[in-house]
Specification:
By secondary structure, the chain is an alpha/beta fold. It is 36% helix and 17% strand.
Length: 368
């Protein structure tokens, strides 16, 4: 069933701007582009209920399920004669907008924009239908300026964007240390400097920041510049797992084309299985896809440690999404949301059951 109760919306604490409060793990901008990967539909392949399915994801290692699944043709094989049309996005808001506008059907996206998209539509437009990745977030610091966690107090630490997934996590960690920071301005016992991931390495090299709480591969780029990993966020979570990438779908598309959604989820499950069984080949495939999209592959000293810190899985880790929302509320970035109905894991569990795999749980936030 769909969420029937009114849902609260996000409060933007900064001065009124056009930026939504909760963005993505990677605030790189708002452009979307065709990813340049042409689908190879096998001759005579049976078409599903839709002629095509439009999927979206980021050119980022935490979205490697999509990168590799498209690169290796795994999704297309499951879709048969239905063409896959991939596009890449550099920010959560643009991907949410594309889903809301119907120009995108299924997307890989971080937890904060998923929550934002769900609450802003009063639970009427989007559903999380699967997981994709966990981990890949670190606090990297200048070892000459910061030698221990207590040394972070009084320093300038970058996060990707105001209210994004890493910003929320860092503000929550700061609060747990007993320190005070104004969430809107970033001023307090620690100076939170909101900086796009693409320029954070330059900010670090110039000395304008003392460290950063950032996702991969930005964290490993900082390490390559002499930074030191002071804290891996995974150590703060039970079993060292927390959601960093979800799979979301337009509810209308799910209702009209459940067979297509199941095919994409089968492709995701099989891609994750291949990634975990062949990590070196998968890493090379993801890097090849990144090179195609950006014109430049990641060097080994960045790619290798970044890849090792990310876990690819099908479980959306629903309980951690609820916790991340609670962290945002505690930090003063989010009004208490009603997330009941944000998950519909029925299609994924059908796929997992057919594969002889254990079903996953929605932590009480499902449609049923």
């Amino acid at each position: 069933m769909s969420a029937a109760r009114p849902l609260t919306t996000l409060r933007i604490l900064a001065a009124a701007t056009a930026l939504p409060l909760l963005l993505t793990a990677c605030g790189y901008g708002s452009q979307s582009t065709d990813d340049g990967k042409q689908s190879q539909v096998a001759a005579g392949a049976k078409k599903l209920s839709a002629d095509e399915v439009k999927i979206g994801y980021f050119p980022n290692l935490t979205h490697a399920t999509a990168l590799v699944g498209v690169q290796e043709g795994i999704f297309q094989k499951e879709l048969g004669g239905t063409t896959i049309k991939p596009s890449t996005f550099n920010a959560g808001p643009s991907e949410i907008e594309a889903l809301n506008a119907g120009s995108l059907d299924i997307g890989w996206i971080g937890p904060s924009p998923a929550i934002n998209g769900y609450t802003k539509s009063n639970g009427q437009n989007l559903r999380i239908i699967g997981g994709s990745a966990s981990g890949g977030v670190k606090l990297v610091v200048n070892p000459e300026r910061i030698k221990s966690l207590q040394d972070v107090k009084g320093k300038k630490i970058a996060t990707p964007q105001h209210g994004n997934t890493q910003d929320v996590a860092f503000l929550n960690w700061v609060k747990d240390q007993g320190w005070k920071v104004d969430a809107a301005s970033g001023r307090g016992d620690v100076s939170v400097v909101r900086t796009d991931n693409k320029v954070t390495p330059d900010a670090y090299k110039s000395g304008s920041i003392d460290g950063a709480w950032v996702p991969e591969p930005t964290a490993s780029k900082l390490v390559a510049e002499g930074g030191k990993v002071l804290l891996d966020e995974s150590t703060l979570w039970p079993d060292k797992k927390f959601v960093i990438t979800n799979i979301i779908v337009r509810q209308e598309f799910l209702k009209q084309h459940p067979d297509v959604v199941e095919a994409v989820l089968r492709g995701s499950v099989k891609t994750n299985a291949w990634i975990n069984a062949h990590p070196d080949q998968a890493k090379a495939s993801a890097n090849k896809a990144l090179e195609t999209l950006s014109g430049k592959a990641l060097p080994a000293d960045v790619l290798d440690p970044a890849w090792k810190s990310i876990t690819f899985l099908d479980d959306p880790l629903a309980s951690t999404l609820r916790t991340e929302a609670d962290h945002a509320v505690k930090a003063g970035l989010l009004e208490e949301p009603d997330l009941k109905g944000i998950y519909d894991l029925t299609p994924l569990n059908k796929v997992l059951k057919a594969e002889g795999r254990k079903e996953v749980d929605d932590a009480g936030l499902g449609t049923g």
